[in-house]
Design brief:
Radius of gyration: 17 Å
Number of helices: 8
Oligomer: single chain
Order of helices and strands: HHHEHEHEHEHEHEE
Bound molecules: S-adenosyl-L-homocysteine, 3,4-dihydroxybenzoic acid, magnesium ion
Strand order of the largest sheet: 3-2-1-4-5-7-6
Distance between the termini: 42 Å
């Protein structure tokens, strides 16, 4: 029992149920060729994000942390033709790789990447006063999560979902004395979710190809 088994079972379940196509496989390969870190959500997690967006009837999704666009492709595929996914990415290099992957997936008209620090782009997005988002996926620097939660709450409609990746961190989330800034970031994030009467949330611990981690899902109270 351990990582080898988690990887093997993840591969079995993904090949049975997830149905990753060429555009997604190629997005991962292009990221590898370009030297991007191999830290996208797994195929099974991508499918979960897709299912959540579909179940919500989402038309507008916000992502914080694009990398090579793997999770963006999954979520964009859940949207109607006139849907919109805005993805915020700090690294111009990552955004460039993502743009290629999104074009290959035929999603140029749906996905918009905004390059820059999320902390700069979120206030701009709010100031634009566009339609609220149905779902937010937070997956950038973990120290920024508490701040991203505040902006996500401002930007999401009642009944919408705010999802955050990597909140269990191999179990380190339960260690309040951790000196790891990433651990403290996700702990503050979860404390804010718990304390805010506008949110009802949970965390599912996960094991799989990416190790032992977890996904937070919080609903904006209608
Ligand atoms: N959601 C992607 C993976 C994102 S990895 C997927 O599953 O396919 C995290 C990304 O967040 C990296 O590309 C990193 O460059 C970006 N990032 C880190 N700090 C950021 C910041 N302050 N603002 C915006 N993006 C940031
Ligand atoms: C890292 C970031 C992620 O979003 C993730 O899912 C896995 C790893 C990282 O920065 O190492
Ligand atoms: Mg992640």
């Amino acid at each position: 029992m351990g990582q080898a088994q988690w990887t093997e079972v993840d591969a079995f379940l993904s090949s049975l149920l997830v149905g990753e196509d060429d555009a997604l496989t190629e997005a991962t390969a292009a990221g590898r060729r370009a030297g991007l870190p191999p830290i996208s959500v797994s195929p099974a997690q991508g499918k979960l994000l897709y299912l959540l967006a579909k179940t919500l009837g989402a038309k507008r999704v916000l992502e914080i942390g694009t990398l090579g666009g793997y999770s963006a492709i999954w979520m964009a595929r859940a949207l109607p033709k006139d849907g919109h996914l805005v993805s915020l990415e700090y690294s111009p290099r990552h955004a460039e790789v993502a743009s290629g992957n999104i074009a290959r997936a035929g999603l140029v008209g749906v996905v918009e990447i905004r390059v820059g620090a999320a902390a700069d782009n979120l206030p701009k997005l709010a100031a634009e006063g566009g339609e609220p988002f149905d779902m937010v996926f937070i997956d950038a620097d973990k120290g920024g999560y508490p701040d991203y939660l505040d902006w996500s709450l401002q930007l999401t409609r009642p009944g919408g979902l705010i999802v955050a990746d990597n909140v269990v961190r191999g179990g380190a989330v339960a260690d309040g004395l951790s000196r790891d800034a990433n651990v403290q970031g996700v702990r503050s994030y979860l404390e804010k979710v718990a304390a805010d009467p506008r949110l009802e949330g949970t965390v599912m611990q996960t094991v799989g190809v990416k190790g032992y981690d977890g996904l937070s899902i919080a609903r904006v109270v209608a």
